[in-house]
Amino acid sequence: MAMNTQGRPTAPGTATIAEIQTFTGNRGLDHEEPLIFEIGDTGRTGVDLPAAPKAKSRLGGLERSAEIGLPGLTEPETMRHYVRLSRKNYAIDSGLYPLGSCTMKHNPRLNEKMARLPGIGDIHPLQPQSTVQGAIQLMETLARYLMELTGMPAVALSPKAGAHGELCGMLAIKAAHEAKGSKRDVVLVPDSAHGTNPATAAFMGYRVKSIPAMADGTVSAEAVKAALGPDVAAIMLTNPNTCGLFEREIVEIAKVVHEAGAYFYCDGANFNAIVGKVRPGDLGVDAMHINLHKTFSTPHGGGGPGAGPVVLSAALAPYAPLPFIRKDGDKLTLVEDASEAGDAAPFGRLTAFHGQMGMYVRALTYMLSHGSDGMRQASEDAVLSANYIRASLKDVMSQPFGGPTGDRPCMHEVLFDDTWLKDTGVTTLDFAKAMIDEGYHPMTMYFPLVVHGAMLIEPTESESKQSLDQFIGTLRFLANEARHGNDKSRFKEAPMLSPRRRLDETKAAREPRLRWRPAAAKAAAE
Amino acid sequence: MRYLPLDDADRADMLAKIGVKAIDDLFADVPNAKLLKSLPPLAKTQSEIAVEREIGRLSARNVSAGSVPFFVGAGAYRHHVPASVDHLIQRSEFLTSYTPYQPEITQGTLQYLFEFQSQVALLTGMDVANASMYDGSTACGEAVLMAHRITRRKKAVLSGGLHPHYRAVTETLAKWGDTAVAELPPDPQGKEDAAAAIDGETSCVVVQYPSVYGSIRDLKPIADAAHAKGALLVVVVTEVVALGALKSPGDMGADIVVCEGQSIGNGLNFGGPYVGLFATREKFVRQMPGRLAGETVDAEGKRGYVLTLSTREQHIRREKATSNICTNSGLCALAFTIHMTLLGEAGLRKLAALNHANACDLAERLGKVKGVSVLNDTFFNEFTVRLPGKAADVIEKLAERHILGGVPVSRLEPDHPELADLILVASTEINTDDDRAAFAAALKEVL
Ligand SMILES: Cc1ncc(COP(=O)(O)O)c(C=O)c1O
């Protein structure tokens, strides 16, 4: 508890916060903010444009006549609307964001500055390649860094996020099988996998066969071998896995997979644990996506954009999608069409243009800033911090895979389950919501699905020791209250201090209201 | 290292608390032979000054759009983005937050997504829109898959006016997902009869509005033809500003509308990140890919927003999900919605009118150059020009004269030598009379 050094005590009143009703509904800095449709109107604008000179319309008689209904605001009103909305959000810049599997690390602002340089942010994907040699060079440099850090001989840059990268890697695998004339329609996916893995496999027409994990949270080569057969095209395995553990039999798994004529797709969402420590290429991986918006610090922006480059083994490299970079001495060419692909056999194209340049520059800026030593240090610190949290909480919270004493090391995230909450009446959800009142974003909860009431905590390397200690202190306090406190309302009612209390998700799904409608239309629709 | 708060003393304390001697004890599960013994052979930590210099050098080797008369489009457009947009999207609370999984502390994101969805639905003339896709091209591919699910058919008809990259993306999904595409030949004149290609197997017909060659056609007849055969109409819009001037696809019978939303709020960025808009009719909402924000109430009855109808999505449905998409284009959607709010209907219409007038002026100027003809009867802010010779060479020569004069069709359709004399030319509100005059003069010179 911080001391009040201001002299005058901020006297606690008698009313509880919830009882104070303000005239406006606002609460100090937390403003109730209407929708733009309720404050703007179709005639108002925040952009001054010259009137268009009169010209004969060439729109073919398809001019829009009826009103669209788009509200406008002037610039000051716009600023206020979005600044007020922004203050209802939690963010890395305001606090520790321990969302497991999401790697909410610091987003350096130099990255933002570099992405806005005119020669980066203001160039068109289809202007002559002779006028964008620096941009292609930047992509080539990023590719070289990714290949070096993963120990893989090729990389496809264009996928737009992790799931898109999964699609890319799996398509390369499908193309490689087809080239060999082998027809295989099954993909092995452990139960602990992220939802995008089975969704990707199914998206491409594969049947998903799940493989069980061992009691220690990892997959055994034996289980993989038992599931393999002539119909298996690939395994999709996350490493480090979603339980926060390094797959210790990974080299043997790769071996049995290859012996069965299948390929090894590695979900690289958790690459932040091992950069500069171990290279996936040395483990037998054939394809792996890298979420630049996790490991390489490009901001998540409230849900995106991301980028999901995929590193490829020599066996899969020929099938990399268009476009790809070709080097002729000093000249760099983006090969954009199959007719120019030469010996390569690209499986197709995943997106218009060349991918997420805005993310490439941010990721490369991060890599150059950290350097090889800084990147390795970042991974070590991320792993150290997660283990510090584990060691500091192991006596009050239960770990599904922590071993008899809870001392088994984890990678960059630590997984707890809800065994320790048994008979308290408090659930993982309640516990997470109570963290909100303490000023924290909750950890990832109920994922991975294989663990009951999962709580997956990923602190990243961006936290100071003081920050970690405060977080640990908070969780210890809450854990103690959950287990021994008399009043569980702190959990059951939580959150009480956030801009909104718990929201009714059932109502949202049963009576979907997915857009604003004018009052009259709304009444008619109901 | 300036981004890493722990120091060696902290690290030692933490290792002691954990009860291990060295950091590598925490990597015990990594096969020892595989643990790297030395640093990767890459440069070491660098100062902000040094990194800025290095990236700056790469940037300086490119010709930025703003530094020359600029007429390149074909699916990505240079528009003026108000300064306040870029300021707002860099608010930490937007920039550095994740997907709004905890609605109590992410109402900012959820409300702007709800507003974004509402704007997109209005603009496209559809009932509902999702919270964004990666970009227009992947949204197009997903729209076709959605049409397959709805109609339980497997063949899509792709118009010859569809952007070749969009076609390639859709084809790639079809090729490896065991569905079919019937592709119509490139249609620079805007004269194809797509309706004739629809048969009883067709799940959807995909048309671009305006087409990649710029022409604009009434979509009602093709919607009727599709519906008569039990197929859907998917409309692709790569220049959303056009919807400020043109009848909405929804008004003409579209079932799914996908757009590249880059034009509003987002810069060129060499092709990404952009933002895919995805809208459809109410009855199809449960077949939609992607996230949806919805309105609800909190425990005190106050209005609030959540992610909803998640049973369509990969994190709940896994292999039965409608799509594998997870991360989308949230921040680009924010830029879109802020810019659209600044414009409002009045501003959007004015912006669209200005684009059209500028393009009309450019068409007139280029049409007067000897040997040059404009192919289009109709267009919005982009049209197709026939040159007396290889278009790609002309574009290179113009670039040498510091004019970025458009996209040679051969870059998008290298397998069609009969199109090698065509260029796509766009003129938005950023071009001045001087820019257009300089373009026409330079074209005359290089021909
Ligand atoms: C383990 C894992 N795999 C895949 C993904 C998908 O990545 P993206 O959201 O970038 O598509 C995620 C991200 O949430 C993840 O945590």
Description:
The complex is a heterodimer of chains A (526) and B (447). Chain A is of the alpha/beta class and 526 residues long. In chain A, 33% of the residues lie in helices and 9% in strands. Chain A has a seven-stranded mixed β-sheet, with helices on both faces. In chain A, strands 10-12-11 form a three-stranded antiparallel β-sheet, covered by helices on one side. A two-stranded antiparallel ribbon of chain A has the order 8-9. In chain A, helix 7 links the parallel strand 2 (186-190) and strand 3 (207-211). Residues 1-14 of chain A have low confidence and may be disordered. In chain B, helix 10 packs across helix 13. The mean pLDDT of chain B is 97. In chain B, the strands form three sheets. A seven-stranded mixed β-sheet of chain B has the order 1-7-6-5-4-2-3, with helices on both faces. A four-stranded antiparallel β-sheet of chain B has the order 10-11-13-12. In chain B, strands 8-9 form a two-stranded antiparallel ribbon. Chain B has 447 residues and is of the alpha/beta class. The site of pyridoxal-5'-phosphate (PLP) has 14 residues of chain A, from helix 6.
Q: Key features?
A:
heterodimer, A: 526 residues, alpha/beta, Aspartate Aminotransferase, domain 2, Aspartate Aminotransferase, domain 1, 7-stranded mixed β-sheet, 3-stranded antiparallel β-sheet, globular, B: 447 residues, 2 domains, 4-stranded antiparallel β-sheet, 13 helices, 13 strands, binds pyridoxal-5'-phosphate
